[in-house]
Design brief:
Blueprint: H1 2-38, E1 52-53, H2 70-84, E2 101-102, E3 125-129, E4 150-151, E5 154-155, E6 163-175, E7 181-193, E8 205-209, H3 217-221, H4 225-231, E9 248-251, E10 256-259, H5 271-282, H6 301-312, E11 316-317, H7 325-336, H8 339-342, E12 347-348, E13 361-362, E14 370-372, E15 390-392, H9 402-405, H10 420-425, H11 432-439, H12 443-454
Parallel strand pairs: 1-11
Antiparallel strand pairs: 2-5, 3-4, 3-8, 6-7, 9-10, 12-13, 14-15
Helix pairs in contact: 2-6, 5-6, 7-12
The protein binds heme C (HEC) (2 copies).
One heme C binds next to helix 5 and helix 6.
Amino acid sequence: MANSVISLEFPRWGRSIALLAIAALLGIALSILLHHSWKDSPSGLLAGGATTVHNRSSRAFSQPSPGLSAEEFDRHGEGDANFDAVFVTAPALVNPGLGPLFNNASCTGCHIKDGRGMPQMGQSLVRVSLPQPTIDPHIGAVPVPGIGVQVRDQAIYGHVPDAKVTVEWQERSGQYPDGTPYKLRSPQVLLGQLDPKKPIPANTLTSLRVPPPVFGTGLLEAIPDKAILALADPDDKNKDGISGQPNFVWDPQQKTTVLGRFGLKANTSSLHVQTAAAYVNDMGVTNPIFPEANGSSDIDAQVLDTTTFYVQTLGVPERTMLDDPQVQRGEKLFTQANCATCHTPMLKTGKSDIKVLANQTIHPYTDMLLHDMGLGLADGRPDFEATGSEWRTAPLWGVGLTQTVLPYSGYLHDGRARTLEEAILWHGGEAEASKTEFMTMKNDDRSALLKFLNSL
Ligand code: HEC
Ligand code: HEC
């Protein structure tokens, strides 16, 4: 009897243990699963917070942000039309006011599909100035007499462009420590005089700049000054070899010096001013911030505001391949190689008049600061407080879509890098140690890091 009791009891007891064990295992599995989904990768799927768009097509940079009100959505559409508008010589019924000197006739002619432009004249531009110690505090550089600080290489009928611009590419080869060869190219800008009244001084400093993508800039504008300033370490107090300096620039609208955010040397204060400057300098279209001598302008405040609003409210493409082990390893290597010290993976926006931009956690991969990138990338041309070798950390969100949006487009300020790998190999100065770390990685690790960049 006792035996049969035991034999009856034992399996029941065993079943309870088995059930308990299963429950425990399920619990562990569940907690791992939940933990995994709770612990958002620092880079995050929602690169642009609430403005993130589920689109990784060739139109990924051209999507309106989700969450706009009906009125905002209409305004975005109106701004889209402005961004695409091709200006023509006045007088004309539609979009008059081009030139007399200009670089391109529309925003979209340079920022193709709201992304970058090719490193070629027509889509890029050359900034110029003279190497004198005292810069004009309102311009940030010493203008070349007769030309100013930007070469307008196109002109309407009856006018002569500032100069003829030729870009020559020089190629050189190098090798990784493991013997893998690579090739790098860099541009040389040549200016030829076209207008007898505009001689080009022999000591003219030049800076070739390709248009960077414009999406996500509304979020970058909504990051509080103090969050950006907190990332600066101008005296490298933490001794990691990486300093990071803010640029301070003249704001013609507020008529004061403020933190610089936009442009490749953070040489412009706000999107409003950036847009107004693009109209007047790149297209020769005067506007309320940069009017004609008599105070009139080619476009009114409403057009300027609406175009600015369009840029502010473009969505940021979502990340991809978050579950790919190679991408995850690449992300770790990105942090280990100190890339993330400049390419800040996470920032928070503050207040904004545009609701969808306010208080967002974003993953722009920039600290919005200037870094000395070494002689290889230097243009030798100061821009407000930026020296000739400093550049603003390029935001890396959407960088993996660059070739999808515009095949053959280049990376870095002048588009010299044909691949993400070449872009890393050009890093020097404060980023020298990071580059060396990349170069000494095993081939597999380099591929993982590049795959991570392509997932952004
Ligand atoms: C000739 C080509 C060209 C045209 C036309 C042009 N841009 Fe740009 N854009 C550039 C370049 C080059 C830069 C970088 C400027 C610099 O570093 O000084 C830039 C920078 C910008 C930025 C800053 C992006 C960032 O990440 O800091 C915005 C925004 C922008 N442009 C908007 C516009 C708008 C709006 C228009 C039309 C009104 C326009 N652009 C017309 C070439 C162009
Ligand atoms: C000291 C700061 C710093 C560090 C460290 C750094 N970068 Fe950069 N990165 C920059 C700056 C500044 C630029 C823009 C340079 C230019 O335009 O000439 C840039 C540009 C880039 C670009 C080109 C982006 C574009 O849109 O053209 C890529 C890709 C990039 N970095 C990846 C990396 C990777 C990967 C690492 C680590 C191996 C790294 N960076 C480390 C500051 C840094």
